[in-house]
Design brief:
Number of helices: 12
Low-confidence stretches: none
Shape: globular
Number of domains: 2
CATH superfamily of the largest domain: Alanine racemase
CATH class of the largest domain: Alpha Beta
Bound molecules: ligand LLP
CATH architecture of the largest domain: Alpha-Beta Barrel
Largest sheet: 9 strands, mixed
Mean pLDDT: 96
């Protein structure tokens, strides 16, 4: 579900013509649909209404302040993974009691800043980290709430780079270690070890991995209960897949009806950390065709966006639909083309073997670019980062200015 669609022959975001937005804001351009973002959030919230979970939007998916504000002002909390993301949350005055903090490498400064802000809890990923948080909490004379991240060692069926719930990944701790910590939690008086956290991977399109992981968590929770250890929170992470090509991911309702039965009898406060599900299909990356190049072997549509703007195709060989923002009239061309950027690497592509009827000067839209698009962009090849626009209440707002050449060098020092 999303609000990018063709009306007559033009691509629209909600009620605004993409062509008009490109004329006004230039290319390449990220365009987000506020309505799509909120509807995804409400769908998840409503599907889990019975449990009244805390839904902490995963900032890393798209960390633009206006998008965070849109979500937090509608009741979302935030799942953060760095001091930088904490800084964003603070800028928005996000309620600290709605912030959870994961990451295998939290530094002392990051831990201290998060404690001082009063976040709801840390999702702790190792014994050394637990010790470090305890030490800093003691120094600050504050009692700090933590959840232990369980690595349930389950297959999630997604790309290896975004699988996080297998035993050999760097995330979380195995069942035995987690259990051991809970049993000796009294020895860490500055910590309230009262939650269990899991996040098994991203772009998971099947229900089964979630169920398997939850069953393992439930077994652990009941073993702990029998030993007198009572928990308060269960954080089931994010990971819900979306449609990029032909995937058939579960809807919010299907997801909830599959796992609610496993959660209802626990009597725990449930936390969710969705990222992609909320923003993935709510954004496009629009770009202009610079050249059409034909070689004896191939046809290339060379556009002004590249792997530095959207890394997913190059990094994970991820598929994103690409459309011309104005539907071509007349005969369809038979030749397939690779849609590539100007960067000096063969890995710089946005799509391969696509059927696109397009001419120089016209524009394309890469769909499903709202999650891990801009947030993973870089200045590689000294390319200024692109502008971002949010459509909200029938209006287009510039929510990040296009960088200029001075932005590229302003932190550099010539010696
Ligand atoms: N919670 C934790 C602890 C996470 O590490 C992540 C994502 C999420 C929640 C949100 O997951 P989501 O609901 O968005 O699947 N760059 C990759 C995805 C990396 C995901 C990292 N962790 C991509 O473009 O596919």
């Amino acid at each position: 579900m999303h609000y990018f669609s063709f009306k007559k022959n033009n691509l629209y975001c909600e009620n605004l013509k993409i062509k008009d937005l490109l004329d006004k804001f230039g290319t390449p351009l990220y365009v987000y649909s506020g309505r799509t973002i909120l509807e995804h959030f409400f769908k998840l919230r409503d599907a889990f209404a019975k449990l009244e979970p805390l839904i902490c939007y995963s900032v890393k998916a798209n960390s633009n302040l206006s998008i965070l504000k849109l979500l937090t002002s509608s009741g979302a909390g935030l799942d953060i993974v760095s001091g930088g993301e904490l800084y964003r949350a603070k800028k928005l005055k996000c309620s600290p009691k709605k912030i959870v903090y994961a990451s295998v490498g939290k530094t002392d400064k990051e831990i201290k800043d998060a404690i001082n802000y009063g976040i709801l809890m840390f999702n702790v990923e190792s014994i050394p980290e637990l010790g470090r948080i305890a030490k800093i909490a003691r120094k600050l004379k504050k009692r700090v709430s933590v959840a232990l991240r369980l690595n349930p060692d389950v297959e999630s069926g997604t790309h290896a780079y975004i699988t996080t719930g297998k035993g050999e990944t760097k995330f979380g701790m195995d069942t035995k270690t987690v259990k051991g910590i809970f049993l000796r939690r009294a020895s860490l008086p500055y910590l309230k070890i009262e939650g269990l956290h899991m996040h098994i991977g991203s772009q998971i399109t099947k229900l089964d991995p979630f169920k398997k992981a939850l069953k393992k968590a439930k077994k652990l929770i009941s073993e702990l209960k029998s030993k007198g250890v009572k928990l308060k929170y269960l954080n089931i992470g994010g990971g819900l897949g979306i449609i990029y090509e032909k995937e058939k991911p579960q809807t919010a309702k299907e997801f909830a009806s599959g796992i609610l039965p496993l959660l209802c009898d626990l009597g725990l406060k449930i936390i969710l950390e969705p990222g992609r599900f909320i923003v993935g299909n709510a954004g496009i990356l629009a770009a202009k065709v610079i050249y059409i190049k034909e070689t004896p072997k191939k046809k290339f549509v060379i556009v002004d966006a590249a792997m530095n703007d959207l890394a997913r195709p190059s990094l994970y060989e991820a598929y994103h639909k690409i459309v011309s923002i104005e539907k071509p009239r007349g005969k369809k061309s038979k030749k397939l083309a690779d849609v590539v950027g100007p960067i000096c690497e063969s890995g710089d592509f946005l799509g391969k073997e696509r059927r696109l009827d397009i001419k120089e000067g016209q524009a394309i839209a890469v769909l499903g670019a709202g999650a891990y698009g801009f947030s993973m962009s870089s200045n590689y090849n000294s390319r200024p980062r692109v502008a971002e626009v949010l459509v909200k209440n029938n209006k287009a707002y510039l929510i990040r200015k296009r960088e200029d050449y001075n932005d590229l060098i302003k932190k550099e020092i010539i010696i």
